[in-house]
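On to my pick:
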Amino acid sequence: MRVMHMDLADLASVRAAAEQLGASESRLDVLITAAGVMASPVRRVGPGWESQFAINHLGHFVLVNLLLPLLANADGARVVSYSSAGHHLSDIRWDDMAFERGYDKWLAYGQSKTANALFAVHLDAIAKDKGIRAFSLHPGSIFTELQRDITPEEGVALGWTDAEGNVIAPGLKTPSQGAATGLWAATSPDLANHGGAYCENCDIAPLASPDGSMDDGGVRHYAVDPANAERLWEVSAQMTAIEGASAGR
């Protein structure tokens, strides 16, 4: 196993990691983009991007685009994008993606997770002719370092922890259980003809009810809408000035 340094908030770091990988490997069979942050206080990175959108989406967007040649060299490569039930919190805020008119850390997280799902939809559309299929997923509720920005007081108010900091939230998955859907999406033959799908609990998720909640599961229509996905792709390509972002067209 080889570990490489990469900071998703710094596109120069992302480019350097992709270049290093390209110099050492001739193909990639599976690429799982699972890194991310959640409910962070307002932070600006790059040219003023909202940090959750930048780290959870834009960094991965650049990485995958730079690694498309390696993925195309494989025989049936897959890209797996970790989204979340948190995508229920917000569609893409097309008129204020950077939250310049007031910041809400949960809506910002929701927007970034919607972006993860839309990314898989359009990547699959433009790369399937090269043998690359893409999927997104909700791994389940898991208590890890992802919650590092949640204060003890918030944890108690949310019902996640008690006053002593013990995790008490019901229905949590272990990290191993949380990895299951990602591994399934990366390998299952059941997904062979379902590129772009949003998955949960090792299955393709149904469309969520308009009046449903995150706890009910399913995927919101806006997170798998092809027109939304293409629009986000073009906006992301412009924001990052990434070459090859229209690969497969």
